Amino acid sequence: MNEHFNLTHFREKLLKVTREDLANRLDISLEQLDEMERHPEDITFSTLRKLSNVAGIPFDKISSYHDYMPQPFEVEDTWSQANFIKTESFQQIEKHSVDDSVKSYLEEVKNIIHQTIVKPSVAIVGMSDAGKSTLINTLLGEDKLPAAWTPTTSISVHIKHLDDRPSFIKDEVWVFKGNKTGFNMKKVHEESYSKKMKIAGGDASILSKFGVRQNSADSLDEEAIAAVIYVESPILKVCDIVDLPGFGTGDRKNDDVLAQKSKEFADIVIYLSIANGFLRGTDIEFIKSALNGLPTIESENNGLKPLNNFFIVASQAHTINDGNLTELHRILEKGADRLYELTPEEIWKNKREQSGYLYTRQDIRNRFFTFSKDKLKTREKFEQELRTLLERLPQIIQQQGFDTVRENVNRLKVDIENKVAVQKDIILEKNKYVALLNDIKGNEKTRQEHNAKSRETILKLISTLEVQSIKEFKNEYDRLINVENIVRIMEEKKYKKKKEDIEFLAGYLTSKVQMILQETLKNKSEKLTREIEHYLNEFEIRVKKFDKGLSTIQIPFDTLKIFASGLAGAATLGGLAAWASTLGNLGAYILVAKGVSVLSAIGISIGGGVAGAVAGVAALGGPIVLGIALAAIVSMSVFAIFSGGWRKKVAKKLVESYSVQNVVNQFNEEINKFWDETREAFNTSADHLENEWKNSIDNLTALVHSYDEKDIEFAIESLNQIKQILDTLNFSPDTILT
Mind giving me the DSSP string for 268-327? Predict the structure, then answer.
């Protein structure tokens, strides 16, 4: 059979029958039909003959049938200027040979550029039958991902342009495993990391083994969590696309969590829900969670509209009266109204704090679209909005991302200049530095004791904040989840005595619980931020507390930057994400290094303060909230009608459902995890700060006591060479297209 034959499309468009109907006509099981739709190239000659007889279509027409595939989605390449500057910078750095003692400076610069100047990432999300792969293939203009009516994708598939493929990857596709934090796609260009995590490589067909749920035991490697595929398509010039696992199938336990966690790195989220079952209860819950964690990139400064990077798409729009736009728009209107009503007001408040915008019902409606591969009219508005956004975002990344790079590079240059000044000074006044070292070492024990106490103060504060968080969460939870309050909410929102309203109530309350968690941790993170700032000020004073006669000496030690660089290397941030968001462009680099989307990191760092604290906790509780909401909805499914005091009965049933699920304990675990991550992040950064200070003393001691003027001059020459290389790098705004 021709490998391009699309049995699913043939069944739906020409035969217009269900899977069950066709399986019965062919006298095969649904599992066998599923296998045929996934692998039409394996359909036997006899089965093809039977299909010809069943369909009443000549054999030769079936064997030559091809699925319709639109032309690739065209978008102006506004990323080319950033890519040019990025490439030129790497070439400028790599053409120089420098001494090993200063190579770390260039590696740091390359890492800053690599992490910060990246294309926006578009996450395609939805339930497993929503048609995500079909949408992606349509945008690409070719069938690269497995597409079928039944649930397929079970790993996240990252689609990048062929030009972005590292030289060490020769295959079209690589499949990866992950560690406890998953696979870091931002490190896919690092050869040692990618090869360590690689499970398999090959052409696009390999995704059918690792990216498709099948029944055979050897068809799915349970370690596989991510894949990268390199494709030459216009849209990939300006963005990366990620096909996330379809959730809600129960086929693989981690899929829902993976879909939830994976969307957190995305700059743009496209959520698909089938038009003939638009925005079911599960859809609503996932969308609310997605909205809550969605990067807030819009502001009056950049001209982006509210929720500009969120698309809610009624897929398979042709199923509604052959794509009738009037009927489709009516479905979108109802869906937008429903979502707005069911989204806790705290989500809109948090977004307002980050962007400065009000979020109205119309703003939500503006983010609803339709899509069908075969009906151009159903996807025109969606494609127009997507094209406009994808052409604008690279310009924002260029303008603000290069600001981040430039500021961090300038910090390195200042550090180099200070080190050169010290080394020149040592040649002229060695005795002064001998006295300085004696003074430092004489005070070192006292300084270490003071720092140990200061660290203990921070750790005690974290423990106190943890206890307070648990207590405050429980108090607010009890105020919300009780029979009387739930009845009051039902009356205020005018919920009716029907199954749909009761399910929506369950989802609404669960989202409110998540908002309590986030508000609690946001406030506590802001308290911690103030104490971290005090801790660093004290550290700075102590390490530069010299004898008065030596007060004019400048020690090249940037306490803030060094603590921040330690945080960039930590496994997680916890409550220190709020502190990082106050650091401007330095904080943006830290947040990007931790997997936060580049546009989100830039936006957080610009906003800082409350906005940064909000963004730092926005995704907390997402996976467990979805699970709790869905379980509550299921538990309420039999409570469609009541007589008498039905509201009170519903309220009691909901309270009981949350109790059975141990909701408070689940959220307490989330709180404990948050503060554990905060401790780990602080200890990692504080250890790094302390070690770097000790290294600074050791290096200064080596320079002074093993004094050799030629060695010092060589060190100065090496540092000046690095400075000259950095001076050649051009990240000024006038090099960037606007």
Answer: EEEEEEEGGGTT-HHHHHHHHHHHHHS-----TTTTPPTTTTEEEEEESGGGTTTT-HHH
* 645 C-beta neighbours (distance < 10 Å), count: 11
CA 53 to chain centre: 50
| Secondary structure (3-state) at 161 | strand
Residue type, 530: R
The Cα 133–Cα 565 span in angstroms is 39
User: Between 314 and 654, whose confidence is greater?
Assistant: 314
- How far apart, in whole angstroms, are the C-alpha atoms of residue 44 and residue 61? 16
- 615-to-284, 293, 352, 523, 581 alpha-carbon distances in Å: 21, 8, 12, 12, 9
Q: Which two tokens stand for residue 143?
A: 């069938």
Under a CB-based contact definition with an 8 Å cutoff, are residues 395 and 738 in contact?
yes
Give the 3-state secondary structure of residue 721.
helix
Secondary structure of residue 360 in the 3-state scheme: coil
In the DSSP assignment, the letter for residue 173 is: E
Helix (H) or strand (E) holding 456: helix 430-480
Partner residues linked to 497 by β-bridges: none
Residue 263: is its pLDDT beyond 50? no
How high is the pLDDT of residue 344? Answer: 86
Q: Name the token pair of 240.
A: 């990366």
DSSP alpha helices (H): ranges in 481-584?
Answer: 483-492, 499-543, 559-568, 576-580
Question: Residue 258: its pLDDT value, please?
Answer: 45
Beta strand 268-274 with 121-126 is parallel
Both tokens of 251, joined, read 């086929």
Q: Which of 29-38, 346-355, 517-526, 541-550 has the lowest mean pLDDT?
A: 541-550
495 pLDDT higher than 50: yes
Q: Which two tokens stand for residue 602?
A: 């830039």
DSSP 569: T
Instruction: Classify strands 173-176 and 198-202 as parallel, antiparallel or unpaired.
Output: antiparallel
**Mean pLDDT, to the nearest integer, of 676-703?**
92
- The mean pLDDT of 173-187, rounded to a whole number, is 81
Structure tokens at 648: 């009170």
Give the Cα separation of 231 and 236 in Å (integer): 8
Instruction: Give the tens place of pLDDT for each residue, 241-256.
Output: 998 876 554 444 444 4
pLDDT tens column, 133-177: 889 989 998 777 765 433 345 678 899 999 999 999 999 999 998
Q: Angle at which helices 663-705 and 559-568 pack, to 10 degrees? A: 130
Distances from the Cα of 452 to the Cα of 321, 456, 533, 684, angstroms: 71, 6, 16, 14
Beta bridge partners, 314, equal 273, 370
Contact between 379 and 371 (Cβ < 8 Å): yes
**What is the C-alpha separation between 399 and 416, in angstroms, rounded?**
26
Contacts of 353 (CB under 8 A, 6+ apart): 610, 611, 614
In the predicted structure, residue 30 carries a pLDDT above the cut 70 = yes
φ, ψ for residue 105, nearest 5 deg: -60, -45
Q: Tens digits of per-residue pLDDT, 416-467?
A: 888 888 888 888 888 888 888 888 888 889 999 999 999 999 999 999 999 9
Amino acid at 214: Q
**Residue 595 backbone zone (phi > 0: left; psi -120 to 50: alpha; other: beta):** left
Question: Are 240 and 122 spatial neighbours (Cβ–Cβ below 8 Å)?
Answer: yes
Q: Supply the mean pLDDT for the chain.
A: 82
Q: What percent of the chain has pLDDT over 70?
A: 82
Amino acid at 427: I
Give the CA distances from residue 244 to residues 223, 270, 592, 600, 626, in Å, rounded to whole numbers and listed in that order: 16, 11, 20, 19, 16
What is the arrangement of strands in the sheet containing 121-126, beginning at the earlier edge strand? Answer: 198-202, 173-176, 226-231, 156-161, 240-243, 121-126, 268-274, 310-315, 368-370
